[in-house]
Amino acid sequence: MLLAFGACVDHAPSWADFIANDMTAGTGTSSDGGAAATTGPASTLDEPTPATGDPEGTTDAASSGDASSAASDAGSTAGGAELVPPRILAVDVPTKVHLAGPVPVTVMTEGASLVRATLDGAELELFTDQGGGVWTGAAPCFGAVDNGAHVLEVTATLGPLSHAWPPVMFEVAAPAPGDLAWARLGPSGSTSRRVVVTPEGDAIEVGSLVVDGAPRPSIRKRRGKDGTEVWAEGTIVLDSREGAVDAVALTPGGQIWVAMNVRQADSKWRPRIVLLDAEGHATGVEMPTDAGTTVRGIASDAAGGCIAVGFGSSGYGDTDIKIWRMNAEGVAVVSAKGWDHAPNGQLNLHGFDDLAFDVVIKDGVAWVAGASKGKHDEWWFETRGILVPLDLETGARLDPVVVQEAYGGWRQGMYLGAAAHPDGVVVVGYGAMTDEASQRIELALYDAGGARLWWSPEAAVDVAYGTGVAVSAHGGVIASGVVMDGGTLRGVVLGRKGLTYELEFSSGLDPSAVYGVALDPWDQVFAVGELTAAGVRYARAAFVRQ
User: Fold this and answer.
1) Strand spans (E) along 329-409
2) Which segments carry the region annotation Disordered (predicted)?
């Protein structure tokens, strides 16, 4: 336990996600209102049908009631004049899409008041009227998971009248999952511990930067397209004291919560939980804290408040999970509130050492991922991963508390990262043999009732632990971690639960670690950590296709 815990304390980078699209534009054009040429095998001119002489897909208002009433419903000012059906003149879609991102769709119309579309039968967001009969929209592409042919169907309406364009085909041919798009090193002596991604697909990367021979808490922003730093200041140092930012969360309004640990002048460590603006500068909102505890995870709620977790002494000889809560109005609710594991109603509240490393909010409940050391089976002192549900507003414990299960000789472990999943909460950490001689990364998915729905143990090696986890739009699980490979520690990015890929953060003899992962709006992966080259440590951020 000490080996893995020590490694996690010393390492913990994390970074953000990336959005990209590289599309070969189509050439659909409209002509004189009759003929329309579009790209794609199904982009054809809509001719009148022989049976009625009306454009295919139109509806006559008179057939369903009074024509003047229909005209009135559609906003006509011509009294009882019959409505003229809308027409789609052209649909322009790329014939082939190579990268994840929004696939642009342009529709030329006459007389339309609304344009909508479906992709493979699923409704897309309504198109935007650009004026002059031009409507624009987008179809989503999530990378290789969408490889293959897709069908786009577009409909224009005017009141009760509509016109459907024949189905348009386009193909997705994205790079294979696990392909590295780019990687960037930070300054010498730096490390990255966690990462979040903005709605625009840029990454907020936090960790530490060496200044005057000591690490200082730091933050930087990278452009998703190519990893270049966005802010004019480059990497921003957030505190003049020794320390590091260990966790980061983005508010719905684009502000940034950071949780850092700094060494005071009296050499005591103190957590700092601070709200930054979107440019990485302090807003003046900070959670009151005392020395003697450590903060390791933070999450932002839907209103912009935060809950943070960590650990510290209980005062009774053991270590307790600690909880901090500040609401969206900047009001401190609880500070370093303790929680101690006491299974099966036992009275000894100080029989377990408890640690928290991450927290995620799911359906209004804060789920804390961590570890607990004690007599879990009322016999041996063992360290197990735990997942603790808390009331978001008060920090009060809810039920059930999940304890990592033991299998044969695999009786030790920790949960070091957590993420919300459509079916519950997914955690990542490690499992170990009783003597800690062999370890493996473990992933598990639990529902709200504490039932384990899915479990993925990785190959056993001398040293292995998972550090961060993220969930794709399709329910896939992406994990970061560290494994011993041929005597060298290497950072890894793993795609699991419907995804099957592995990316090593380094090659050759250079040791590395990945401490955090996050996904951009199109499910592409940002991974952050560190790389040591020629004895010098550098923060490293990478963008991985999937």
Assistant:
1) 332-339, 353-362, 365-375, 381-391, 402-403
2) 28-79
